[in-house]
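=== RUN LOG ===
request id: a7f3
mode: sequence -> structure
chains: 1
length: 492
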Amino acid sequence: MQIKLKFVGIAIVLVVISGCSNSSQSHEMMDHGLKDPNMSGMMEGHMSHDEALKLTHSTGENELKIPLELPRDTEEGVTYTVKAQKGKTEIFNGIETNTLGYNGAFLGPMLRLEKGDKVKIRTINELDEETTFHWHGLEIAGDADGGPHSTVKPGEEKIIEFKVTQEASTLWFHPHPEGKTSEQVYNGLAGLLYIEDANSRNHTLPNIYGENDIPVIFQDRNFTSEKQLDYKATMNEDGTIGDTLLINGTVNPKLTVNKEKVRLRLLNGSNARNFTFKLNSGDSFVQVATDGGLLNKPVPLKELTLTPSERAEIIIDFAHLSTIDDVALIDEEDSVLLPFEISNDRGVESGIPTQMNDFSLTEEEMSLPVSKKVELFGMMDMVTINGKKFDPNRIDFTQQQGVTEIWEIYNKPDMMGGMIHPFHIHGTQFKIISRDGNAPPENERGWKDSISVKPDEKVKIAVQFKNKGVYMFHCHILEHEDNGMMGQIKVE
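=== RESULT ===
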């Protein structure tokens, strides 16, 4: 099968090259090093995102696991201790899979913070290799952000300190070592970080953790015949895609719910797969939050697409669906992701407020000129930002602390048409000004730290850093990040 695919890839490449041999685009691709004799293999990998492996249906035989809420440390002055560890996990019945995890064998716990908290986290590396602890979406000083400069060696521990200054949101944490992020995340390093504030507690949104307020971490994986994770065997330079879905580390999951409103905190924790979520019944749900906070008003949706690292909070009203039989969350190919078993219990009364936040774009922000341009380009290991690969010794941009600037993100098409790049900036939450000159859709009018950028699309965002330091900005297809689709900004 592999041989057949390679011949198909070569045939397609030959047709494309002969069809555009005199075009400026073909010369441009050659200038970017795509005259390499291995080009056919790269093209094949690139196409895999247009024809991604279809996910196998969840059989619903296993109840969805809920990440434990990490208890606060009793030691004076330390809020949490987070350990990166190796372990073995029974993902499949009777078989132990080698995995990585935080404070356990696989994935990680949920850490709960409050706006205004002064936090001290002890991070410990119990792996056999270097790692970092990156707090994705957290507004934090650069030296505590956990980028590739902040490595923690095997057996080493470091303490970070910060004050929580942002509003209620669902964030996450994962490793970010240079060139190794994709493999460490793939093998299980990912955890959750919740922030709460007075505004979020005053609302009637579902908020009983694990009952009607459920975190759902979506990750696709490939397993060997021995049910092991073999990243090196399955790795694709253009983004590793799998055919087996894990949700919170659960294979073939189902979620048992009462006849009530249930809040799902969606996280696309995959290396590269985009997810479009919808209900197989055709019913609507409402989105109430983006990456970094509550929307002003709930937004009814039939479907929602999240690229890697994006989050969204949605509410499904299981008391008022058109049917309660065989209801499931499915993707754009109608693969069953998460079946729901709806009990006869009425559950807890909760509501969806008509007004939840006061997020806004100011006239000043809307009128600011573009001061930074980011061009995403390429595929496989030829990916660049502004024509350059990541250099840990190079600062690409500078910005003043507390000053808002407008960044323009452009996804430049390649000769194959290009692919969606999820763009992420460390240490900040930003506002979307426009997509190709148009106002963003209603469900993106809130705080974001990651944004989907389609081929040939230009997105303008308003960016402000509350803290100083050096921060990464990059494509969150993890293999692209590891291959150098990343830059650095120094906030002074």
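=== NOTES ===
The two ends are 54 Å apart (CA to CA).
Residues 109 and 358 are 30 Å apart (CA to CA).
=== END ===
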